[in-house]
C-alpha cells in the first residue's frame, strides 16, 4: 500500500507592528521646478477626442452671447418701429382735428403787374399778390417752391417762390423774377416788345407749386402743397404793360 503524506499548513502572518512616533519617516526625493515628460502606457490611454470637438464646444460657448446680442437688436428695432407708428397716428389725429375744427381755406393769388426786362439775359418781373383768407390760421410758405411761365404750352421762364410767413387775414405783394429760358425770345414776345403801331396782346400761363404749413396756437398742420395756375393776358410787352385779364385757380394736393 502506498503511503500518503500531507504538507503542514503555512504559518500565520506576523501581527502588525504598533505605530512608533519615534520611528524615522519615509523621505521623498526633492524634485525642483522644470519641464517633465510623463509617459503613459498606450494601453492605458482609453480615448483621445478629435480636434472637431474643441470647435464644437467653442461654438456652443460663444453662441449664447450672439443670441443675446441679436435679441437685443431685434427688440430695439421693434421699439423703434412702434414709436414711429405712434408718431404717425398722432400726426394723423392732430391733422384731422386741425382740419375739422378750423377748416382752413386755401390762399388766394392774383397778378398785379407784368413786365419784361430785355437784356442779354431777359427777366420777367411779375408782381404777385397773395391773400390769406383764414381768420385764425397763419400760413407758412416753405422753401422749395417753383414758378414757371409758359406761352402756348411751352415754358419760357422759371424761378423760385420765396419763403415767408403770412398771418391770418393778411395780404402781401412781392415780385417774382423769372429768368428766361436759354435761347432766343419767342417770336410773339419779340413782336409785342418792338411793335410801335399796335399793341400785340399775349396770354401767358403762370404755374406755381409751393409747400406750406398752417398753424394756430399749439395746433399745426402737416405739409400742404398748393398748385396755382394763372392765365394772364397783357396788352403789350413794351412800356406801360397792363394786365387785361387774369384767372387764377388754386388746388390742394
UniProtKB/TrEMBL annotation:
Transmembrane ranges? 73-102
How would you describe this protein's topology in the membrane?
Single-pass membrane protein
Q: Name one GO cellular component term.
A: plasma membrane
Can you give the residue ranges of the Late embryogenesis abundant protein LEA-2 subgroup domain?
127-215
InterPro entries given in the database record: LEA_2 (IPR004864), NDR1-like (IPR044839)
* Alphabetical UniProt keywords: Membrane, Transmembrane, Transmembrane helix
Q: What is its main location?
A: membrane
What GO biological process, any one, is recorded here?
defense response to other organism
Does the record carry Ubl conjugation as a key word? no
Region (Disordered) location: 1-25
Signal sequence extent: none
Where is the protein found, in the record's own terms? Membrane
| Amino acid composition bias (Pro residues), ranges on this chain | 7-21
Annotated Pfam families = LEA_2 (PF03168)
Q: Which PANTHER family would you find in this protein's record? A: EXPRESSED PROTEIN, LATE EMBRYOGENESIS ABUNDANT (LEA) HYDROXYPROLINE-RICH GLYCOPROTEIN FAMILY
Q: What is this protein called?
A: Late embryogenesis abundant protein LEA-2 subgroup domain-containing protein
